[in-house]
Design a protein that fits this description.
By secondary structure, the protein is an all-alpha fold. The protein has three helices and no strands. Helix 1 runs antiparallel to helix 2 (31-50). Residues 1-65 form the Inner membrane protein YgaP-like transmembrane domain.
Length: 66
């Protein structure tokens, strides 16, 4: 897999995931919405770790400097 995410993009995704996790575990968001957002947060963290987003590839987007 070729990297297609910049460091800024990765940092933004991790921050969003951390905020969602905080809101979920503090009880502010719950039920189905909370579970869906936690799954998306997990995907954000995973794509940040590997620096690759399949949707970016699908749409031909790359924020990584070549």
């Amino acid at each position: 897999m070729k990297k297609n995410m910049s460091n800024a993009d990765r940092l933004i995704r991790v921050i969003i995931a951390a905020v969602v996790a905080y809101l979920y575990f503090s009880g502010i968001i719950g039920s189905t919405l909370g579970i869906v957002l936690m799954v998306l947060a997990g995907i954000f963290v995973l794509t940040s770790i590997i620096s690759f987003c399949p949707l970016y590839r699908l749409f031909g987007i790359s924020t990584c400097k070549v």
